[in-house]
Amino acid sequence: MHSRIAGTGGYLPAQVLTNADLAQRIDTDDEWVRTRTGIRQRHIAAPAEQTSDLALVAAQRALAAAGIASDEVDLIIVATTTPDMVFPSTACILQDKLGVKNGPAFDVQAVCCGFVYALSIADRMVASGGARNALVVGAEIYSRIIDWNDRGTCVLFGDGAGAVVLVPSERPGILSAHLHADGSYRNILSVPGTVANGAVSGRPLLTMDGHTVFKFAVKVLAETAHEALAATGMAADAIDWVIPHQANIRIMEATMKKLGLPLERMVSTVGEHANTSAASIPLALDVAVRDGRIRPGQHVMLLGVGGGFTWGSVLLRWI
Ligand code: UT7
After folding, report:
1. Which single residue of 84, 161, 251, 260 has CA 20 to 30 Å from 55?
2. Which residue's CA is the nearest one to ligand 1's atom 9?
3. Ligand 1 centre from 27 Cα, in Å?
4. Are both 156 and 74 inside the same structural domain?
5. pLDDT per residue as tens digits for the range 136-159
């Protein structure tokens, strides 16, 4: 038994914050942000919106696309670094908001690689018969863990959610999944704060060594793509679409160059969504499925990298 994606969904909060809007608050400008990152705008969650609210809309859209009712869902995995609260998990809150009670629900915390981790776990559970209708979501509200006075980081991130429904399949939809981590790089991208003794301890805002992250990302995204190709015996040219983590257009383009693939085969939403961390890959997947770019029989390579450091790939055939 194998698994395949039966439907995708996405949700972006209504408020759009452009580079020009940011330039009114901090010392930056549209040209710098566009040329260094490819980002033109980002979406920002409303004060009353929680990560589970974003996840709920994306999940409902994915379920509708798959033709599966909420009460048929028997596994929920939410990849997030910005959960509603310390506990319970955002997945349990989402389960309640969906009005269902079947099966396990848990969060995966692998930062921007979280969706790739979650999809890989769900694939193994569905393919082994442990679940029949798995909801896999990436959902984030990074606007609440960003230092809005740090121009080196605040221009990069946005809020959003993407979801897929994974179902059993006799033909393989998910062809390979490879996951990695190296905790010795934990300090180059972190939110070094926590809650202790009734107060926030440490600095609960994103800090980053941008240059080191950039170089590391380009290196491991290409490596894990080659790993997937070697494991499946496929040539790079057989990949119809690459969906890398949407962090910076220069990282994404450098990865395509290393793979020897034309930029036309890359799905890019970083200009409109910015970096939505664990939501970036499922959001981009949803856009490319809904606009008809991804078609049955095509091969799609998902490439994730994030704080931890974590990285990995999922190679799939769209069926
Ligand atoms: O999910 C993973 C998350 N993180 C990433 O993907 C980040 C990876 N890193 C990057 O994307 C890039 O390193 C950045 C976009 C963060 C920075 O780009 P860069 O080309 O490496 O720029 P830089 O850090 O070398 O900065 C160049 C200049 C500096 O000024 P000086 O020292 O040359 O005078 C910065 O102070 O640009 C300045 N700068 C800005 N200027 C206008 C930094 N941020 C801004 C800004 N607007 N927002």
Report:
1. 251
2. 210
3. 13
4. yes
5. 999 999 999 999 999 999 999 999
